[in-house]
Structures are given as structure tokens and as C-alpha cells.
Amino acid sequence: MTVLRKNLIDGEWLGEAGSRNINPSNTNDVVGEYASAGPEEAKQAIAAAKAAFPGWSRSGPLARHAVLKKTSDEIMARKDEIGRSLAREEGKTLAEGVGETIRAAQIFDFFAGETLRLSGEMVPSVRPGVGVEMTREGVGVVGIITPWNFPIAIPAWKIAPALAYGNTIVFKPAELVPESAWTIVDILHRAGLPKGVLNLVMGKGSVVGQAMLDSPDVNAISFTGSVVTGKRVAAASVEHMRKFQLEMGGKNPLVVLDDADLAVAVDCAVNGAYFSTGQRCTASSRLIVTEGIHDRFVDAMKERLDKLVIGDALDAKTQIGPVVDQTQLKQDEDYIAIGRQEGAELAFGGERLERETPGFYLRPALFTGATNAMRISREEIFGPVANVIRVKDYDEALTVANDTPFGLTSGICTTSLKHATHFKRNSEAGMVMVNLPTAGVDFHVPFGGRKGSSYGPREQGRYAMEFYTTVKTAYTFAG
Ligand code: NAD
Questions:
Q1: Is 0.90 topped by the overall pTM?
Q2: 418-442: per-residue pLDDT in tens?
Q3: Pocket test for ligand 1, best of 21, 89, 149 (most atoms within 8 A of CB)
Q4: How far is residue 326 from each of residues 55, 125, 333, 359, 430, measured CA to CA in Å?
């Protein structure tokens, strides 16, 4: 029997069965059943968060520290079970699922610490006898809207700072991964959050998400997802004069120069392009390779790809799990067909795979002979598909790397300090990696991009404060 997971509204678990969650490694396996909220529930959740804000925003650091620390401890203690459940519903491997769960625990721990470190400034006024204080306060009701590809880490890196800085929350997770979202909310609820401080509204983006966008009582929205939805969030937020923050797609370049260590370059490219089934906003989907190393790099890539174990996410031997669902699989296959029509050569993979259980298995695809003008080089595919773009030298590589509407991450593999340094300074991306995959970032430093990838202040680390607080300047004349 599958358990029904309900929405959390004003401290009560509510709702009837609305949607089923299917394991992408085995479509016969139903992970669970979940309540699906409508606009009315969304309104109730927003009202509850609004009512809870005065109390929570004045609760002080100790109360917030206690909840966040307890949450971190429970997530860490249950990392294997939660990580397994995440891998079951999303399709990333067990190691990736557990790794992501540990990361969520670390994020809650980090922001537990931040509750005790919030500081302001005090300066003398230009007027004699007057003091000026600059303090930070919570923004109010924060709407949190998340995608399916990091089912626990992304909710954690939004919920933890929102709570740490005294905000209340309406959280709407992606439809495909409700179990991880429910689990994190359940842990936070039991850790002692007062009612209404955190509300969970699972359901359709076009219904629940839209109700959040349309509400004048949501004071800020933190969104991660596609560019199309991000633009909707932006337009609605401007309409309501609310604060908003968007993290969206990527088409991240990994430059490989002639002087690169070939083994390092192949490790970076395989990890960056294909791990998590290529379903990462930070994936290296454009491999920009200079002429002198091009053929050796392509041969070594094919050899490595041939050895990758693609299969059930819950099998410990699996290195690449299935694609998340049928819609994403179709999108990946459509882009593979587009790449061929555009004249790129499918040098490896790209075909559906049969496994013991019915699932969305796709062999990682590598295109060669791609140009940067092709659609496969300009549009985010969000699957295990990467293109090799051959270039003459470093200067051309940098130009091609920056010639994209996106700007989330970028990377370079080189043993030249001169080129590495020049690339770090001139890459038009929010995060730059040298001899490292474009995906895989630390939890205590800012995360975010430029151009069409991101909008608004950075997430994570101390920089998260910019979004989740508002500054007050107070003047005092003591006589
Ligand atoms: P999506 O835009 O389809 O959905 C994201 C969220 O928005 C979901 O919760 C969805 O239900 C909700 N939503 C949909 N319509 C809505 C509406 N009208 N109003 C309000 N909310 C609505 O994205 P996805 O397919 O879940 O995720 C994949 C995308 O996320 C990719 O483009 C990927 O690059 C991006 N992503 C970006 C980052 C980053 O930090 N830059 C991280 C992970 C994923």
C-alpha cells in the first residue's frame, strides 16, 4: 500500500490523493501518492504564512538556530534512506542521491550558524548627536518554487536562509519529486517550527505556482527552473512590485586546450556532461576543444563513455541513471535528431536502452563536428547530450565559450597559468572552473550566473542574505 503524503498548511497536514510519483528506473514502481493543491489551498497557505511572519521574524536567533540545527542533524542521520528515496523518484544514482542529501544537511547547518552571526552597522550621522543604524530584517512571505533535478538540495538552499533570516514560506516543489520535498518539510515541522511558518503546497505549476505569482501577499519569490517559467515569475513579480530571484538554464562551455592533461580533461567532461544523466543546469553541454588535442580527446571520450554503466539508479554499480520521465526523454531524442539534421556527427550513443525493468534509459550521446551556431549548441537540452566544437586556439575558444545567451558556469582544462587566469577574468559566467567539471560546487559560497541564466542576487553562502533580507536605516537623536 502506498502512503498518501499531504500538504502542510498552517501546521495541519491536509488534502486528498491527487498525483502519483513514478520511479523512472522502473515505471511499475509507484513511489507514493501526493495531495495536489488548488488555488484555494495556495491562498490558505499564503494567509497562514502572512499571519505567522510577525512572530517568526521577532523570534530571535536561538529559536531559528534550534530548528535549523535539528533539521540538519536529522537529515544527516537519515542520509542513506533519504538519498535512496531521492534516487528512486528522480533517477540519479544512489551515490548522487546520498551526496545531495548530505549537502542539504550541510546547508541547514551552515544557516543555523548564520542565525547567530547576523550583524548590522552603526555610523555617526552627518548631523551632530545623531546615530545611524543599518540593520537587516526578513522580507515577509517568501514563495519558493523549485525544479525536479535537485529535489532536496535546491529546496534546502532556499528554505534554510529564508527561515534563518526570519521569513515565512510557501513552498511549491516540482511535480516530479514530491517525496523529497515532503520529507524535508516533515523534518522541519517536527523540528519545532511554529504553525504557518513553513507551508507545503504540492501541485501543478500552472495552478499552485500561478496562485503564488498572482498573490499580492507574497513579498518575494525565489525560483529555480526553466527560462520560460522564470520569465513568468519575473513579469508577475514586477506587476506586484515584489522582490524576485531567478536561477534558470545553462549551456555551459568546457574549454579543452592543447596543453591540457588529457586524463583530467576527460574526467571533467564525462562528469560535467553526463553525471546526473546530464540533468544539471551546470552541465558541460559544449566541449570546446583546440585542434592539437581534438582527436585524442574525442577518442578518449568514446573509450570512457563505452565503459559507463547505465542502469537502475538504485543499483550500486550504476554510474548513469535513467532520464527523469517520458517528456524529458522525448526532448533529448528530439535534440539528438536535430543535431544530426544540422550536420553534426553522432560520434557515440544517443540510443534508447532496454534494462530489466521498464525505464527511461538513454545511452549518453556525444556529437562531434558541431558548430556554435547549431541549435544543439545554443538551446538547453537538459539530458546526457554534449557537443564537441573544434576551435583553432585559445582566443577562438574564449569567443565561442562566451557566445551564448546563458552564463551560469564555464570551465577550462589547461596547464597554462596564463590561459587559466585570462579565462577566469574574461569568461562571461557566474562560476568559473579550472581543471574541474563545470558542475559540482561548494555549499558555503555564492551560486548563480549571468545573462539568461540568472536574475537577482546570488543564492547560498552569506550572499543569500541579500535576497532574504531587506535593509533598514534608522536614525536616533538621543538629545
Ligand atoms: P520548470 O520551469 O518547468 O518548473 C520549475 C518549477 O516551476 C516547478 O515547480 C513548476 O511546477 C513551476 N511552475 C511551472 N509553471 C508555473 C507557473 N505558471 N507559475 C509558477 N510556477 C510554475 O523547470 P523544470 O523542468 O522543473 O526544471 C528544469 C530547469 O531548471 C532547467 O532549465 C534547468 O536548467 C533549471 N535549473 C536551474 C538551476 C540553476 O540554479 N540555475 C538549477 C536547477 C535547474
A1: yes
A2: 999 999 999 999 999 999 999 999 9
A3: 149
A4: 45, 62, 10, 9, 31
